Amino acid sequence: MKKVCVIGCGVICENHLKPLSEMKDIALAGVCDVIRERADEKAKKYATTAYYDYQSMIETVKPDAVHLCLPHYLHSPVAVWCMEHGVDVLCEKPMNSSYAGALAMKKTADATGRKLGVIFQNRYNSGSVLAK
Predict the structure, then answer these.
(1) Closest by CA position to 16, among listed 132, 127, 117
(2) Are the C-beta atoms of 92 and 69 separated by less than 8 Å?
(3) What is the pTM of this model?
(4) What is the pLDDT of residue 128?
(5) Rounded CA gap, 34 and 54, in Å?
(6) What are 12-52's pLDDT values in tens digits?
(7) 92 secondary structure, DSSP code
(8) Which regions of 18-102 does DSSP assign to beta strands (E)?
(9) Average pLDDT, integer, range 58-65
(10) CA distance 132 to 128
(11) Given strand 26-32, what is the order of strands in its sheet?
């Protein structure tokens, strides 16, 4: 069973927490947010542990993967730190708010051998396909 944590408990995290909580081969091992009430609410709803510092959560839980549901400018530093600590990363879009940040994520994934995925759920919507 794979242990997965979610970092960031804003609106988009529900799109990650609900399916993760229903997967038989996944253990939702923790949720993290700097706003304690949000982390506590999601932890209670999904029967997991709330954390308020992602580094402490990673060091305590030692998950196989994390889902980043953070503001764009935080994607790169958090993803890089997680991959450097042996954790695969699935990141919400956009990858980062700067090219340099996105490149740092890619280089870290290559250097550490960790998996890095980025959500692009609209790429096959009819409007996107039509525009392309």
Answers:
(1) 117
(2) yes
(3) 0.90
(4) 57
(5) 9
(6) 999 999 999 999 999 999 999 999 999 999 999 999 999 99
(7) P
(8) 26-32, 50-51, 65-68, 88-91
(9) 98
(10) 6
(11) 50-51, 26-32, 2-7, 65-68, 88-91, 116-118
